[in-house]
Amino acid sequence: GAPYIAYRDGELWVEDVRVADLAREHGTPLFVYSATAMRAAVAAYQRGLQGRDALICYAMKANSTLAILEVFARAGCGFDIVSGGELERALRAGAAPQRIVFSGVGKTRAEMRRALDVGIGCFNVESRAELDVLDEVARERGVRAPVSLRVNPDVDAQTHPYISTGLRDNKFGIAHEEALDAYRHAASLRGLSVVGIDCHIGSQITSVAPYLDALERVLDLVEAIEAEGIPLHHLDLGGGLGIEYHGEHPPTPDALWQALLARLDARGHGHRRLLLEPGRSLVGNAGICVTEVLYTKPGSSKHFLIVDAAMNDLPRPAMYEAYHAIAPVRPRTEPPTVWDVVGPVCESGDWLGRDRALAVRPGDWLAVGSAGAYCMSMASHYNTRGKAAEVLVSGAQAQLIRARETVADLWRQERALALD
Ligand code: LLP
To answer: Where is the Orn/DAP/Arg decarboxylase 2 N-terminal domain positioned along the sequence (predicted)?
Structure first.
């Protein structure tokens, strides 16, 4: 894609802003995002879906900072949410409730009530038990809840087991062979109104094939369900499209949609309203995390580079052994050394990159790449480390969209000991 985050004149820029200037002004660790990169990612989906009745529901779990949600809301996106907290964030960012879909296996009654009260677009229901509870909650409120059932197409998305969700043996969705019966049940409940069908087969998917497999399986179900007189207005194919972290070559959204639409048309389903729930592919490569080198610690077998960002800021390497590129903000012309880049947290799992050749000195800034998705939104306070600050860049403008947390922020909800 276009180089929204790239080197110019010997240093790293995000659009027309020098990363070094932002690091100096706001300190580190610091997340910096390109709004133009996010808009371009949405546009790639929109191009692929041109001329179709389609809605892109940004899966905000990938990055739910309010200003980022505003960027997507203004670009015409709806939202895929998974909690009452995400619902409030989406509303706060100006999302139209009818453009929100509510996913997740464990919605509480309180979350259902609130979503019904604001007029949410659809509940993506994940079990029969949830159907019954939602029916009850909706009847109590004298409304009908719009529902789609998340079906489990049992395809292998060929991704990391922790982020693969379409296989039979995981907690998500309703098994393919139980789906028809679940739809009959849903259609019989007075508090529900069946509006669609959905699936989501996993995350960081780098080929078209698993999507086509899932689509075929879902269309088989659509035909069986409609044959029973239960009309489905929309088809939600979830998210999951991967990004390039390190040498992967995922299809572009346009290419993916070309293949899927061709299959939909061939089977006579081209008229259907389409929903999708991309997260990572809209924000992942739109962001970096800037960190300062604190110490170099050469050893006999390994050399460590200790930086001020850690697993609480960037949990993906520790959780999934994920690879994130690490590059100097201002490259030096010295010969590089091979380092393990690690954070200050007291865990051996607190590493950001292994065996990275870098020419750096203490005080230098490094940029951790592909940090727009599932980094800040998964950040924690472990070791009483406040969450990093976030800056959004658009052209030559930069705005602080999240101030760095202070220690007082961290213990605000705590109470001093009052017992004897
Ligand atoms: N829809 C549903 C129902 C989902 O569960 C997810 C992600 C998405 C959409 C968005 O998927 P995406 O387009 O972002 O792949 N923390 C992990 C990723 C977990 C994904 C969970 N579900 C990571 O850092 O790789």
So the answer is: 40-283
Q: Whole-prediction pTM value?
A: 0.97
Phi, psi of 339, rounded to the nearest 5 degrees: -125, 155
From the options 1.10.260.40, 3.20.20.10, 3.10.100.10, 3.40.718.10, give the CATH code of 35-282. 3.20.20.10
pLDDT tens digits for range 336-355: 999 999 999 999 999 999 99
* Residue 33 known to bind ligand: no
The bridge status of strand 397-402 relative to strand 389-394 is antiparallel
Q: What is the model's pLDDT at position 402? A: 98
| 125 Cβ inside 6 Å of ligand 1 | no
**Residue 92 is assigned to a ligand binding site:** no
Q: Which residue has the tokens 């035909």?
A: 223
Ligand 1 atom with minimal separation from the 165 CA? 5
